[in-house]
Write a structure and sequence with these properties.
Blueprint lengths: L2 H10 L1 H10 L4 H29 L6 H31 L6 H14 L1 H13 L4 H25 L3
Helix pairs in contact: 1-2, 2-7, 3-4, 3-5, 3-6, 4-5, 5-7, 6-7
């Protein structure tokens, strides 16, 4: 299935989608691609925020702010791998039978699946600004990610 189809299917049947991804066999390129999908969505989602901040600061261009966002997104790569490793250690401590690879796929897919929420959050922050709408989108997105990651990690640790 395509990534966009899987993104939608993940919200209905997250365990089944993860099983299908893991059944493809171990492929670090595939796992990294899932992380890249999230990073691209996170990067694009920050553009409206950078544009708003540049406008409010009276700057001619938002490009320096967007470049800073790009560097920030790149820093997330080793952080994501570290968090996946920690989640595998926690899973093992609780008797999980998964692998390092399945923990990475679970985290990276949970991030990618909640990536569209980051696009919405960026639009709300860029167009409306701080307030109850941004707070609501942030909370809903954060809770959705935590639920999805916990569900996928539980499935990944089943071995």
């Amino acid at each position: 299935m395509t990534v966009s189809t899987d993104l939608v299917a993940t919200w209905r049947r997250p365990r089944q989608v993860l099983r299908r991804h893991l059944a493809r066999g171990k492929s670090e390129a595939f796992a990294f691609t899932l992380l890249l999908v999230f990073l691209i969505l996170a990067f694009v989602g920050q553009w409206p925020i950078a544009a708003r901040e540049a406008f409010l600061a009276g700057e001619q261009s938002a490009l320096p702010r967007i470049l800073a966002v790009a560097y920030g997104v790149l820093i997330l790569i080793p952080v994501a791998y570290g968090i996946a490793a920690l989640s595998r250690l926690v899973g093992r401590a609780f008797g999980g039978q998964g692998s390092w690879y399945s923990a990475r796929v679970a985290l990276f897919w949970a991030l990618a699946a909640t990536g569209p929420v980051l696009l919405l959050q960026g639009l709300v922050a860029g167009m409306i600004g701080p307030g109850p709408a941004l707070t609501a989108v942030t909370w809903v997105g954060g809770l959705a990610f935590l639920w999805l990651w916990a569900t996928l990690l539980h499935e990944a640790e089943r071995g």
